[in-house]
Amino acid sequence: MANTGKTVGCLVGLLVVAALAGFLYFKFFWVFSDGTKTGELNSLTYTGYIWKTYEGEIILTGYGNKNAQGTVQSKNFKFSVADPEVAEQLNNLTGSKVTVHYKEYKGALPWRGYEKSVVDKVTLEPGNINVEDPFFL
Length: 137
Known about the structure:
Distance between the termini: 82 Å
Helix content: 25-40%
Order of helices and strands: HEEEHEE
Number of domains: 2
Largest sheet: 5 strands, mixed, barrel
Number of strands: 5
CATH architecture of the largest domain: Beta Barrel
Structural class: alpha+beta
Strand order of the largest sheet: 1-2-3-5-4
Protein backbone atom coordinates (compact mmCIF):
# COMPACT_ATOMS: atom_id res chain seq x y z
CA MET A 1 0.00 0.00 0.00
CA ALA A 2 2.81 2.44 0.80
CA ASN A 3 4.36 1.89 -2.65
CA THR A 4 1.06 2.70 -4.34
CA GLY A 5 0.93 6.11 -2.64
CA LYS A 6 4.48 6.93 -3.74
CA THR A 7 3.76 5.80 -7.29
CA VAL A 8 0.61 7.90 -7.52
CA GLY A 9 2.45 10.88 -6.01
CA CYS A 10 5.27 10.54 -8.55
CA LEU A 11 2.80 10.28 -11.43
CA VAL A 12 0.88 13.33 -10.26
CA GLY A 13 4.15 15.25 -9.84
CA LEU A 14 5.26 14.27 -13.35
CA LEU A 15 1.91 15.31 -14.80
CA VAL A 16 2.12 18.70 -13.06
CA VAL A 17 5.68 19.27 -14.33
CA ALA A 18 4.69 18.22 -17.88
CA ALA A 19 1.63 20.49 -17.82
CA LEU A 20 3.72 23.42 -16.56
CA ALA A 21 6.39 22.80 -19.22
CA GLY A 22 3.72 22.63 -21.93
CA PHE A 23 2.11 25.85 -20.73
CA LEU A 24 5.44 27.70 -20.66
CA TYR A 25 6.34 26.43 -24.13
CA PHE A 26 3.04 27.53 -25.70
CA LYS A 27 3.03 30.86 -23.84
CA PHE A 28 6.60 32.02 -24.52
CA PHE A 29 8.25 29.92 -27.26
CA TRP A 30 5.56 28.71 -29.68
CA VAL A 31 5.10 31.11 -32.59
CA PHE A 32 1.44 32.12 -32.59
CA SER A 33 1.68 33.94 -35.92
CA ASP A 34 4.23 35.37 -38.29
CA GLY A 35 3.92 37.80 -41.13
CA THR A 36 5.00 41.12 -42.55
CA LYS A 37 3.95 44.70 -41.99
CA THR A 38 4.84 47.75 -44.07
CA GLY A 39 4.89 51.32 -42.86
CA GLU A 40 7.03 54.24 -41.83
CA LEU A 41 9.56 53.41 -39.14
CA ASN A 42 8.76 55.95 -36.45
CA SER A 43 11.18 55.06 -33.67
CA LEU A 44 13.67 52.53 -32.36
CA THR A 45 14.99 52.70 -28.82
CA TYR A 46 17.41 50.66 -26.74
CA THR A 47 15.83 50.48 -23.33
CA GLY A 48 15.51 48.43 -20.15
CA TYR A 49 16.57 48.21 -16.52
CA ILE A 50 18.17 44.76 -16.34
CA TRP A 51 17.84 43.41 -19.88
CA LYS A 52 18.42 46.07 -22.51
CA THR A 53 16.22 45.45 -25.55
CA TYR A 54 15.40 47.23 -28.78
CA GLU A 55 11.82 48.50 -28.97
CA GLY A 56 10.35 50.04 -32.10
CA GLU A 57 7.20 51.42 -33.65
CA ILE A 58 5.96 51.55 -37.23
CA ILE A 59 3.11 53.76 -38.41
CA LEU A 60 0.87 51.68 -40.65
CA THR A 61 -1.34 53.70 -42.96
CA GLY A 62 -4.47 52.65 -44.70
CA TYR A 63 -7.55 53.93 -46.40
CA GLY A 64 -11.09 53.52 -45.33
CA ASN A 65 -13.25 54.19 -42.38
CA LYS A 66 -16.73 52.79 -42.01
CA ASN A 67 -18.03 56.11 -40.68
CA ALA A 68 -16.37 58.56 -43.08
CA GLN A 69 -15.50 57.60 -46.63
CA GLY A 70 -12.29 58.84 -48.21
CA THR A 71 -10.45 59.32 -44.92
CA VAL A 72 -6.99 58.06 -44.11
CA GLN A 73 -6.47 56.21 -40.89
CA SER A 74 -3.27 55.03 -39.27
CA LYS A 75 -2.38 52.37 -36.78
CA ASN A 76 0.82 51.84 -34.83
CA PHE A 77 2.64 48.51 -34.76
CA LYS A 78 4.87 48.16 -31.71
CA PHE A 79 7.57 45.50 -31.75
CA SER A 80 10.77 44.27 -30.15
CA VAL A 81 14.01 43.29 -31.88
CA ALA A 82 16.14 40.47 -30.46
CA ASP A 83 18.94 40.50 -33.06
CA PRO A 84 21.38 43.46 -32.74
CA GLU A 85 22.19 43.31 -36.49
CA VAL A 86 18.51 43.76 -37.40
CA ALA A 87 18.27 46.57 -34.85
CA GLU A 88 21.25 48.32 -36.50
CA GLN A 89 19.56 48.03 -39.91
CA LEU A 90 16.35 49.50 -38.48
CA ASN A 91 18.25 52.27 -36.73
CA ASN A 92 19.70 53.37 -40.08
CA LEU A 93 16.22 53.36 -41.66
CA THR A 94 14.34 55.48 -39.11
CA GLY A 95 11.87 57.68 -40.99
CA SER A 96 11.86 55.44 -44.07
CA LYS A 97 9.12 53.18 -45.37
CA VAL A 98 10.13 49.62 -44.49
CA THR A 99 8.71 46.12 -44.51
CA VAL A 100 9.44 44.01 -41.45
CA HIS A 101 8.96 40.29 -40.92
CA TYR A 102 7.88 39.45 -37.40
CA LYS A 103 6.97 36.52 -35.18
CA GLU A 104 4.24 36.93 -32.61
CA TYR A 105 4.24 35.01 -29.34
CA LYS A 106 1.48 34.79 -26.73
CA GLY A 107 3.79 36.21 -24.05
CA ALA A 108 6.83 38.46 -23.84
CA LEU A 109 10.10 37.47 -22.19
CA PRO A 110 12.17 40.24 -20.58
CA TRP A 111 15.37 39.39 -22.47
CA ARG A 112 13.51 39.18 -25.80
CA GLY A 113 11.70 42.52 -25.40
CA TYR A 114 8.59 44.14 -23.99
CA GLU A 115 6.34 43.38 -26.95
CA LYS A 116 4.85 40.06 -28.07
CA SER A 117 5.84 40.78 -31.69
CA VAL A 118 9.55 40.26 -32.43
CA VAL A 119 11.00 41.54 -35.72
CA ASP A 120 13.62 39.26 -37.28
CA LYS A 121 14.06 40.74 -40.78
CA VAL A 122 13.74 44.16 -42.43
CA THR A 123 13.69 45.33 -46.05
CA LEU A 124 13.63 48.82 -47.48
CA GLU A 125 10.61 49.56 -49.64
CA PRO A 126 11.21 50.45 -53.31
CA GLY A 127 11.22 54.17 -53.96
CA ASN A 128 13.21 55.02 -50.85
CA ILE A 129 16.81 56.05 -51.31
CA ASN A 130 19.16 54.59 -48.73
CA VAL A 131 22.01 57.09 -48.44
CA GLU A 132 24.33 54.40 -47.10
CA ASP A 133 23.90 52.29 -50.25
CA PRO A 134 27.29 52.03 -52.05
CA PHE A 135 25.65 53.24 -55.29
CA PHE A 136 24.88 56.62 -53.71
CA LEU A 137 28.30 57.28 -52.15
